[in-house]
Amino acid sequence: MPLRTRLLLTIAALAVTAAPSVQAATTVQDARGPLYATVAPMNQTVEGRILPRMAILLDKLMAEKRDMTLDGVKVFEADDKFLPGKIAIGLAYLIVDTPRADPRHGQYLAAYREIADMTVGDVNDTWGVYYYCQALLMLRDAGVLEQAVSPATLEKLKLKLDWRRFVRADDLTLINLPNNYYGVAFSVARLRYQLGWEDASASEALLGKTLDHYRKYSGAYGFADETDGQGRFDRYSVLLIGEIAHRLIEAGMPASPEVRGWLRRSVDLMLPRLNLRGEGFEYGRSIGTYGETAFLEVLTAAAKLDVLTPEEKRMAYAFSSRVAARYMDFWFDPAMGSVNLWEHGRRTDAYRGKHRILGENLSLGRQYIYTNAIWNALGFKDQPADQGYAAWLDRLPQRTVTWFARGANDRLLVTLRDQRLDGETRVIGLPIINGGEGQHMNSPYYPIPSSPGLLQHVADAAFPQLLPRLTLEDGAQLAPLAYARKAKVVGAGARTVVTYRQNRMDRLGQKAPVADDRIRVRTSYVLEPGLIRRTDVFTLRPGVKVKAVDLAFASFSRGAVSKGGVTTFAAGDVTGFEVEGLSCESRELNNEPAYRSVTGAMTALTTCTGVQEAKRPITVRWTLRYR
Fold first, then answer.
1. What is the mean pLDDT of residues 66-86?
2. What's the mean pLDDT in 410-423?
3. Residue 626 contacts by C-beta under 8 Å, 6 or more apart in sequence?
């Protein structure tokens, strides 16, 4: 299905400065962004606010070409390996959606031809290949491909835009890429088939490989391990089946009952996490605005494939409208002329560094364009969000446990909905999902509670946020990260108890977890409204000596005062942090790069340390109290 919109660029370009935030009908605003009691229809946000901003960026690109600068970044000198493809798809939308009678239609075709010639030799990998192939198919279906791309450049693109550049053709294995790239490879092969560049055999084989791999590493629970069985389950584990579903939708291919079943599992994880703000995943990598569009993509695919009930479909649309509004109200920075993932206290993964600023604007814009097109086709165009959405949220289960793997190591996510006195429900997640190389040492993967505005992480940061770190006499640092076993979740009313054990600790300092059996640990959590308590009991092998134990808590509260192991806060949602077994001190943070979350800078840091004797098990317990 071609992804089209009905953008009238002349009106939209004028409307971009006039479109007020009151379209989003916000009632409460804070550092987390607006709380949407009511919200504009998704189509109005996309066509009236998101698309015009994309048009401005693309006009700037067409005027400045290689010299384009966006918020201080020279976009063509920034080593964005997907940029040519993202530019191609963005400009394709301009061409397809501009009436042919408009003089700019011809101007856009000429500009496309010039920029395609200019960028054909640039690096363009994986997702960039997919975007470019999709753009060429859009142009061909619109009957303007020959005008938009010169014959010589098209021949070069036919050779460059190939899935074989990142997949081994002999055995269809990925070349140093995570598993979500199987779906990208399938999409590229299918698009090449649709463009007439190859037969259907490669796309069919890659689809089979994609589903076989998903089946093998999702196991009994239906979520994709992002590694080859090492046990890392994050945003991508939930999103991947949504991406596969969308690629099937785009290719006009049916989704099997198995695919629909996997998609339903992701839906079941997401629904208890919906909220009034449009917030998404709060743990793992590539979150922030992408943590929100992950929900958008999965729920939209599920709506299209009739995986949702009629009521769920209405609620998914109500949430999708909030995600779109939040993108413009919270993530887009008018002063930068860009989405903001990097400035004013924000920090994201190095993978999505600011060198990708233009590409991030274009790829995010495209996600809103094509999901909005699906909602429009489903009959929701310009429809207001269901007024019963807030009441429906209140009926969601108070506690949900989602299993990813059980056995040698357990992987699970506990989701709690904590009703606050002011009426807004706080969503708290406890992800026990850490395994595999590359991320095990970073705080977004720690088995600690997460909640927007309350408990957040720092991308690519390895400080011991809410997690005891033990330094042994030989200098080795061990942490209870990657080897959870015998996990249990017991709920009684509003109280939830989570327990698990680890017979091995993770020895830090290497890319992948290193098992160290000199210490084992039993961990328990107690979560109830206004309180979270974690207790770790470490048992040492004979002769093992621990030199020190430390942990930290970076928060959004202010006025921290620490005495012994007790810290109180004068302002903010966290009111107290008590640590037994360690002594703590606190200091204010002033937008320090090391303590910036995806949404903004943390404001207080509490660090706790202690020297331990190994004559008996070492117990470290912390209790966090919040409003």
1. 96
2. 90
3. 454, 530, 531, 532, 573, 574, 575
